Amino acid sequence: SCGDSIVTLSFQHSRDRIQLASRYLPGGVSSNFRLGISPTPLVFDHAEGPYLHDADGNRLIDYYLGMGPMILGHKPQAVVEAVQAQLGKGILFGGQSEVEFEAAELLCGMLPSAERVRFSSSGSEAVQAALRLARAITGRGTIVKFEGHYHGWLDNVLWSVAPAPDRMGGEAAPVPQSGTAGQDDLAGQRVEVLSWNRLDLVEERLARGDVAALIMEPAMCNTGAIFPAAGYLEGVRQACSKVGTVLIFDEVITGFRVSAGGVQQRLGVTPDLTIFGKAVASGFPVAGLVGKAALMDEFAAGRKVMHGGTYNSQSIAMAATVATLKALKAPGSYEKLEQRGARLMEGVRSALAAAGATATVTGFPQIFHVGFGLKAAPRNYRDIIATDRAGYVRLTTALLERGVRVLERGAWFISTEHDDAVIDETIASLKGALASL
Ligand code: PLP
């Protein structure tokens, strides 16, 4: 076909370097999410705007965006300058700084649930602080989470993140599945798993009055990009308030991405605590926890709930946070993301349709999901199982060979730097990739 007459890219140098690096790094990588990528885990040299430049000298249009953080594109000038200026003043003080206070004030002005903030270096850690705070406040032990929702890699939350279909049990009573060899079984005894987007199941479980916290991605973005059903979040909010269960929204992906105030602002439901990360600091290791003063102040007074971290609010990371949030708050940022994301989403949808592919395209313009092989929009994890994973990996591999990098799990992240020309080039590559299958 005419869309497929190009010479495809080679990734041989990345392949060779990963092989050599395996002598020092297990599998040649530093996170399990970077293993098993087709045709090889990639090695990068530099990145700018919408582009990655790899060890083979390929220029790739990037929709990974560091798994979400690079919302202003790679190497955003304002962030680089703020970080360079802060570097001139020092790095880690083992104490407070004005740049930290500025970041905290900005953040509290953006997320509706934020009256106070505690910073950490990763989303995984911030989740742990939230669960501890909820248990301390309620005096209860049980945590409820949902199938297909990811809250970090630690033992107590790595349950039923990607459960095997043959051992899941029924939708009304899922059997929790551990996520890794070596996981502490006991850490799962206080965690219960429910199917998401079923208000009746939440109401029924919470009514027993023994649940400390309910944690969820308010729009499910780690598996699919799935909206809550109409009334679901409102109903969950009400059920939690009724019995004193702490409602935690994990907005590590959606926070500062789908709107200045995340899903909670976009859909108008305010949780008690919110986890944020990723897009808050343009790739610097910043995450944290926000919530009502009455809850959050328990870290410092009252029960003095323990939360530490050598690198919490490190000054360089705080400078990156301030610069990122200011850029995002500037008039037009979210309109630009929304318009460009919509153009991309529509382009992807029509290219798939034109190629006769069975697929759904769901989610927000700023983070959407291609459900390859799905006939209807997914409602929760169980609907995602029918995805043609092998087929989609063939497509993402063909796309990569045409200079476009997207996640194999179906998610597409966009930045403010993906302009119309970049998006149109992407759609042309997608058409070629589809034609090559
Ligand atoms: N929660 C959600 C919704 C996430 O997507 C992630 C990471 O992908 C995490 C928590 C964990 O964050 P981190 O990788 O910074 O530990």
Task: Walk me through what this model shows.
- By secondary structure, the chain is an alpha/beta fold.
- It has 2 domains: 2-75 and 332-436, Aspartate Aminotransferase, domain 1, CATH 3.90.1150.10; 77-329, Type I PLP-dependent aspartate aminotransferase-like (Major domain) (Aspartate Aminotransferase, domain 2, 3-Layer(aba) Sandwich), CATH 3.40.640.
- It contains 13 helices and 14 strands.
- The protein has helices spanning 12-21, 77-87, 98-108, 123-138, 199-206, 232-243, 262-267, 293-296, 315-329, 333-354, 381-384, 389-400, 420-436, and strands spanning 44-48, 51-54, 59-62, 116-120, 142-146, 191-194, 211-216, 246-250, 273-276, 287-291, 359-364, 367-372, 404-405, 411-413.
- It has a 7-stranded mixed sheet, sandwiched between helices. A 4-stranded mixed sheet has the order 1-2-3-13.
- The longest helix is centred in the C-terminal third of the chain and has 22 residues, at 333-354.
- The protein is globular.
- The model has no long low-confidence stretch (mean pLDDT 97).
- Pyridoxal-5'-phosphate binds next to α4.
- Keywords: Aminotransferase, Transferase.
- This is Aspartate aminotransferase family protein.
- It comes from Taklimakanibacter albus.
